[in-house]
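User: For my dataset I need records formatted as: sequence, then structure tokens, nothing else. Please produce one.
Assistant:
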Amino acid sequence: MNVTIEKKKEKAVDILKTMNIFKPYIDGFKENDQVCFYENYAGFWVYQEPEIEKKMREIEQKYNCKVYAITHEYTEFGELYDFVFVSDYPDEWEYLIYSQGNMHTILA
């Protein structure tokens, strides 16, 4: 399909706003293409973790998507990184986020 990066970023910003993400993280993504790396309730810029940033760029290149957030958690089956993205298929975009009140489920 090949939707522009700008359109994918617009959709990502809409999702970040819907989730009521800390405004400086939204602004950093919107204005400087900085992706936030979330760990528990803290956020860091992904450029602070070069190995994770490299993996993010590989995913974007391989799948022609736009990663707009990354989460990191430890689960019962090990360490987990979720790359949250907007795909190249606008017909999927309505399913990227499901909200019930202030609880949100996002596609990663």
